Amino acid sequence: MSIRFRLLLSFTSVVVVSVILFVSAAYLLSVAVTGDFRSISSFYNIHYSLHPLSEEEENLFLDMKYLAKHDPKLLLDKERLEEYDLQLKMVQAQLAVRHNDAIIYSTPTLNSRELNQVLPDYEMGNYAIRSTLNSGNQFFSYAKFDFYFDEAKQDMGSIFVLRERSPFAEIVRTLLPILIIVFVCVLLLTGFLLYRYVTRKIIFPLDRLRQSAEQIKGGDLSQELSTNAGDEVGQLVMAFEDMRRKLHDSIQLQLHYEDNRKQLLSNISHDLRTPITTIKGYAEGIRDGVTNTPEKLERYVDAIHTRAADMEHLVDELLFYSKLDMNKEPFSFEQVDLNGCVRQVVNELTLEFDNHGVEIVWNNTLSEEQLYVLADREKLKRVLLNLFDNCLKYMVQSPKQITLRIDKQNEFAVVRISDNGPGIHPDSLPHIFERFYREEPSRSQAIRGSGLGLAIAKQIIEGHGGQIGADSEPGQGLALHFTLKLFEDRR
Ligand SMILES: Nc1ncnc2c1ncn2[C@@H]1O[C@H](COP(=O)(O)OP(=O)(O)OP(=O)(O)O)[C@@H](O)[C@H]1O
Ligand SMILES: [Mg+2]
């Protein structure tokens, strides 16, 4: 059985039980008040019918009834009637006497014409002598007695002792059926609104959860769930949404890894295939006796050696990169004098710079200061070597100049290495730190490289908790910069 159906059932039962209890209470009340278990059928009249008059009024009524039985002619005497009326007035009751179809006496405050129209018919057995009536906009309870002035002539008469009842009681009497209908309607409406409210707050979100779960089962993790509710159902929806997002992210990550793996495989195959083909070609040349002079043979062997060395370099770089990528390459951090370290690398490369006609320019005063960073010295050197190697490789036109600058920026040291080479096209700039990425001119100009140098530099700098970036204007050179956390002596 669905929750929605159960809710509908429970609200309907509440309404039905309430109505039954309400009707039973009304019935029991009427029985309790009237003492008659059939009283519900004449509920309106019975209370006043049983007790229409007070004790004094009742006594006066009995007096008149006695006269009516024994000497009815006396009831035609106006003075006597006025006397009775006066006594009744003192207890706030009123009198009316009927002779055949006409009212021969009525208390002056009564409207005798209206009253005559609503008085009950003669009923000489006097079985129902107490009841209520409406005259104009007044509501009365009364006691009456029907008698003969002269039985032989069928000359009939009635005495009425009337008492006006509260107008509010009359309003309630008139409106009671409507009020009961209104009560029942309010009850039904409340039940319905409650049902709608609970449905909206519980069933709809659960429905959306089910739909979302089905979509996830079908492999669609993109549909977002949202809720503003802070209740238990809202929390459930939020937890579900959290789960969906994490699942979505992890699947995306997996796809990304899978993509990476495929690309890596294709890059490695491609990068290994070129030197292997070359080596194979040279080896076949030697086998087929193409190298008929010792110089030619030496050239072929040299070429084979160079390609093999390239492959070795590529495999070494790849191994190193994948170790960094999988966090399997340990870092041994120590306090390193950054200026000293950069100077040392520059000195080691002096010969290379001279051979390529490259001038090194130091661009700031900090270059003299000792600036300590926490770094793995060997890996930091590798970063610098990779960056200088690129400058040497890609700067082709004189004058060749490399500018070095080391700054402090908050708790970081910033190293900036700029060259005045060809620079990089803005479209390629965001990709140069990706592994195997090589900009088109470097590929086509047969400048040797595997596209791993900057990817390795990035992994190393990020392993230090720093960041690496590049700025370039095509034709104006490339500026590479990285940050390293300054060493704080806490002793
Ligand atoms: N100083 C530079 N000037 C111009 N282009 C550069 C410079 N440094 C890097 N690049 C471009 O960025 C690409 C990626 O450089 P990276 O060092 O990662 O690879 P590589 O130099 O081609 O190969 P590897 O360093 O693995 O031998 C290069 O192929 C080149 O296109
Ligand atoms: Mg490089």
UniProtKB/TrEMBL annotation:
Q: Where in the cell is it found?
A: Cell membrane
Give the transmembrane region(s): 7-29, 175-198
This protein's membrane topology, according to the annotation, is: Multi-pass membrane protein
The chain positions of domain Histidine kinase read 267-488
Q: Which SMART domains match?
A: HAMP, HATPase_c, HisKA
Q: Which SUPFAM superfamilies match?
A: ATPase domain of HSP90 chaperone/DNA topoisomerase II/histidine kinase, HAMP domain-like, Homodimeric domain of signal transducing histidine kinase
Q: Give the catalysed reaction(s), semicolon-separated.
A: ATP + protein L-histidine = ADP + protein N-phospho-L-histidine
Kindly list the GO molecular function terms attached to this UniProt entry: kinase activity
Keyword check for Transmembrane, yes or no: yes
Q: Which residues form the HAMP domain?
A: 200-252
Pfam families the record matches: HAMP (PF00672), HATPase_c (PF02518), HisKA (PF00512)
Q: Which PROSITE patterns match?
A: HAMP (PS50885), HIS_KIN (PS50109)
Primary localization class, coarse: membrane
Q: At the top level of its lineage, which domain of life is listed?
A: Bacteria
Q: Which UniProt keywords apply?
A: ATP-binding, Cell membrane, Kinase, Membrane, Nucleotide-binding, Phosphoprotein, Transferase, Transmembrane, Transmembrane helix, Two-component regulatory system
Primary enzyme class: transferase
Give the enzyme's EC designation.
Answer: 2.7.13.3
According to UniProt, the name of this protein is: histidine kinase
